Amino acid sequence: MTTTNGARQARGGSAASFSLEDSAAVSESIKTSAVAVTQSLDALLMVQESDPRERRRRAVARSRQALDLLDEMKLALIAGESIGPALARLETAAAALREQTGEPGLDSVIDAIDLRVAVELAKRGRTVQR
User: For residues 81 and 83, what is the distance between their CA atoms, to the nearest angstrom?
Assistant: First the structure.
């Protein structure tokens, strides 16, 4: 007779002890699976990083985020509110802004955004961490 947890019961009704017969093989299988998953993820990330469309998409997204944060700072200043939170997020965004896309036109726009971000941070005594 088998219980719901897979342990066999003796005819007298008491449960027999449960043990894995080949725990070393199971352990090795788990390690091998984990390595295979890690290698697959690394390969996928490498392909994404080498794809020019993916680099462009990421660069455009980071640039838009930086512009949105500059806008948020401007609106906070106009409203007389604190710009501290937006400034902290702008510092974080500025550190990730500098990936080159390989497209001269887009790279020059990103350079202009990066310069504007650096100027705003410098006006407030902060620097871009790269």
Answer: 6
